[in-house]
Amino acid sequence: MARNELRPVVKLRSTAGTGFTYVTRKNRRNDPDRMTLRKYDPVAGRHVDFREER
């Protein structure tokens, strides 16, 4: 497998509706489904869930 296929770059968009995004990489073998991480949203000023978008 090529490097980009195994660990693609994914965008994590805030569920608070602010439009703020984080960019990260994920391992497709360990996380085949969409990622959800709880991170800080500086626009909302609090921690919210960030979901992977494609």
From TrEMBL:
Listed GO biological process terms:
translation
Lineage, top-rank taxon, reads: Bacteria
**Cellular component, GO annotation:** cytosolic large ribosomal subunit
Q: Which InterPro entries match?
A: Ribosomal_bL33, Ribosomal_bL33_CS, Ribosomal_bL33_sf, Ribosomal_zn-bd
Recorded hits in PROSITE patterns, A to Z, give:
RIBOSOMAL_L33 (PS00582)
Instruction: Tell me the keywords, alphabetical order.
Output: Ribonucleoprotein, Ribosomal protein
Pfam families on file: Ribosomal_L33
What stretches pass through the bilayer? none
* One GO MF term attached to the UniProt entry: structural constituent of ribosome
Family membership, please give it. Answer: Belongs to the bacterial ribosomal protein bL33 family.
Record's protein name: Large ribosomal subunit protein bL33
Source species: Streptomyces minutiscleroticus
Organism phylogeny: Bacteria, Bacillati, Actinomycetota, Actinomycetes, Kitasatosporales
